[in-house]
Amino acid sequence: MQPKAITVQELYARFARGEDLSKLESVLIEGWVRTNRDSGSIGFIAINDGSCFKNVQVVYDNTLANHDEIAHVLTGASLLIEGVVALTPEMKQPFEIHAKCIAVLGDVDPDYPLQKKRHSFEYLREIAYLRPRTNTFAALYRVRSVLALGIHEFFQGKGFVYVHTPEITANDAEGAGQVFTIATNDAEGKLSTDDFFGKKASLTVSGQLHVEAFAMAFRDVYTFGPTFRAEKSNTPRHASEFWMIEPEIAFADLEDDMELMEETIKFCIRYVLEKCPDEMAFFNQMIAPGLLDKLNKVLETPFTKMTYTEGIELLQKAIAGGKKFEYNKIEWGVDLQSEHERYLTEEVVKGPLFLYNYPKEIKAFYMRENDDGKTVAACDCLVPGEGEIIGGSQREERYDRLKAKMDALGNTEGLEWYLNLRKYGGCIHSGFGIGFDRLLMYLTGVNNIRDTEPYPRTSSALKY
Ligand code: 4AD
Ligand code: MG
User: Fold this and answer.
1) Do the Cβ atoms of 437 and 446 come closer than 8 Å?
2) Phi first, then psi: what are they for 52, rounded to 5°?
3) Whose CA is nearest to atom 18 of ligand 1?
4) Ligand 1 pocket residue status of 239, Cβ below 6 Å
5) For 5-60, how does the pLDDT look when each residue is reduced to its tens digit (9 = 90+)?
6) Rounded CA gap, 96 and 46, in Å?
7) What is the 3-state secondary structure (H, E, C) of 361-409?
8) How many CB atoms lie within 10 A of CB 57?
9) How do beta strands 191-192 and 168-169 pair?
10) Residues in the 5 Å CB sphere of ion ligand 2
């Protein structure tokens, strides 16, 4: 057993509760050096122990037995410090630790890639195993952790049942052909894609179809886990592995679905603002100036709703007025590019936007056909800076319609169970998928998914 150190988080919490920390006889702190400056008689080490965003300042002097060693300790080294807390009401930080002794637990080589200066995101991606030690990534991955719990609190607080949908599936839930197929090796190392299960298996692109079945039992359900897509889109928003939150609600139409989407996003904003004030203030100051104002404004404003058809008209009007897009041929029926989505959400609406009732040809097979015979009750939630962060729809609950569509696409085989849900007490139902990593981009202002994911996987990039 190691001696029990107190965490910096605990010190700050006790201080906030009004405890007089200077009355503590002595404290033990374990952590990593962020900076160390020594002026001969007195030295200062900023220590981060990982328990919170804040560092604590350790002050040492030349009475330390190993003063020379400590004076030369480099950024990144791990230390054990024993000292007393001194209150410093006149300084930026409310207290500091006056060291009685300091032991170097883990020294650091001079080639340590994280030096005191600011490093670029690109550089840090190359050393993904070290970047959680930087302010930016420490903040990002703590918010990521907190947000994951927030998702569960939100849905379970509303009585939703959490369903662990499978990662290995026999179908391409989105029908977009972007699956990673699973292969096994035989003794000679020959790859086989159907020996193991007796059929082709792949990593799931979405838990939706499986979670729909549970909605027909529990009414309100959600799944939240990793999903995989073999898209070669080399953009700041696409990863091959990402986490998705997929609620599914029975007896609910697209309007109800949009209401839940908005409530979910607003809950997540409030949650991270409340639970991670230091991290969010850091993003606001260092990464995305204006972030807090933006998020607070989103909280106060109802999301705009616009049909796909209205969106197309606005884009055509913009082009007629001289606006240049890379894809400038906008007509009813085209799939919108990210630049179009961003124009609508950033320049027209200037906030989150629900674009709904899309042409049926460009959307997935399970979406409910509207009475116009041309569109489906689908909705994407678009946000400034990013474009789509949510895709959802009311599901086709009519057996004959769904079967006809699936037969035409040739994907009925293996999905008979999914069709059966429409025969065995089916009802109208809806759901959506939020890309968790994209949501984190939105909430923190970090604009590349390669940064919001701890170990990103994208095509041609698999380093760690
Ligand atoms: O719009 P998508 O493809 O919808 C579905 O998968 C539905 N089955 C969801 C549902 O109704 N239950 O994906 C949903 C969201 C997108 O809006 C996006 O935020 C995220 O998942 N997403 C990705 N995130 C990162 N990298 C990728 N390659 C992504 N593809 C989708
Ligand atoms: Mg989508």
Assistant:
1) no
2) -160, 170
3) 435
4) yes
5) 899 999 999 999 999 999 999 999 999 999 999 988 999 999 999 999 999 999 99
6) 10
7) HHCCCCECECCCCCEEEEEEEEECCCEEEEEEEEECCCHHHHHHHHHHH
8) 19
9) unpaired
10) 391
Enclosing H/E stretch for 218: helix 208-218
Q: Could you give phi then psi for residue 227, rounded to 5 degrees?
A: -135, 160
- C-beta 437 within 6 A of ligand 1: yes
Rounded (10°) CA dihedral 45, 51, 54, 55: 0
pLDDT, one tens digit per residue, over 257-276 is 999 999 999 999 999 999 99
CA proximity to 96, closest of 54, 63, 66, 124: 54
Measured by CA distance, the residue closest to atom 28 of ligand 1 is 238
Task: Label residue 333 left, alpha or beta by phi (over 0 means left) and psi (-120 to 50 means alpha).
Answer: left
Ligand 1 centroid – CA 256 distance (Å): 19
Backbone angles phi, psi at 298, to 5 degrees: -60, -40
For ligand 1, is residue 432 a contact (CB within 6 Å)? yes
In this structure, the number of other CB atoms found within 10 A of the CB of residue 290 comes to 10
Name the H helices within 176-307: 208-218, 254-275, 277-282, 291-300
The type of residue at 138 is A
Residue among 453, 121, 439 at smallest CA distance from 295: 439
Arithmetic mean of pLDDT, 217-241? 96
What distance in Å separates the CA atoms of residue 129 and residue 90, rounded to the nearest whole number? Answer: 38
User: What's the rounded Cα separation, in Å, for the pair 335 and 99?
Assistant: 63
Q: How far apart are the first and last CA of the chain?
A: 32
Q: Are 143 and 443 in contact (CB under 8 A)?
A: yes
Most informative mutation of 242, 381, 453 for ligand 1 (most atoms within 8 A of CB): 242
Q: For residue 246, which atom of ligand 1 is closest to its CA?
A: 12
Measuring CA to CA, which residue among 205, 211, 209, 208 is closest to residue 163? 211
